[in-house]
Design goal:
The chain is built from three helices and five strands, in the order αββαβββα. With 116 residues, it is α+β, with helices and mostly antiparallel strands. The protein has a five-stranded mixed sheet. Strand 1 and strand 2 form a beta hairpin. The relative contact order is 0.18.
């Protein structure tokens, strides 16, 4: 019996339940999501979804070039908005045009690259 497989499967199920709870309890958008043993990846379509998650759960945003004038904004947060217990890692991903206007709350949470 592969105990490591079963442990990962149980962790994936906990991630799925946590994602569904955040959606049901707080009305957070799930978009297309993938629950994994090490967290949840949510793929959504606009900054509004990103801002909704950010407002409730906090965290920080990174921006990565995705090619052809497109960037991927990723919110790094957890399922525990009040910080009272360990949360499951959540990454909310949104694709934008690189020159698109950015919502102020999204801009404020975006990490700036530091000079080397």
């Amino acid at each position: 019996m592969d105990t490591a497989f079963y442990a990962r499967q149980q962790a994936r199920e906990r991630s799925e339940h946590a994602a569904q709870y955040m959606h049901t309890a707080y009305g957070l958008p799930l978009g297309r999501h993938t629950a994994r043993h090490d967290g949840i990846h949510i793929f959504d379509v606009d900054q509004d979804s990103l801002a909704h998650w950010l407002t409730l759960t906090g965290g920080h945003i990174t921006v990565q070039a995705a090619g052809h004038g497109v960037v991927m904004r990723t919110l790094h947060t957890t399922t525990d908005p009040d910080g009272r217990r360990p949360g499951i890692p959540v990454q909310v991903h949104v694709l934008d045009c690189a020159d698109e206007l950015v919502m102020p709350e999204v801009a404020a949470a975006t990490l700036r690259p530091t000079a080397a």
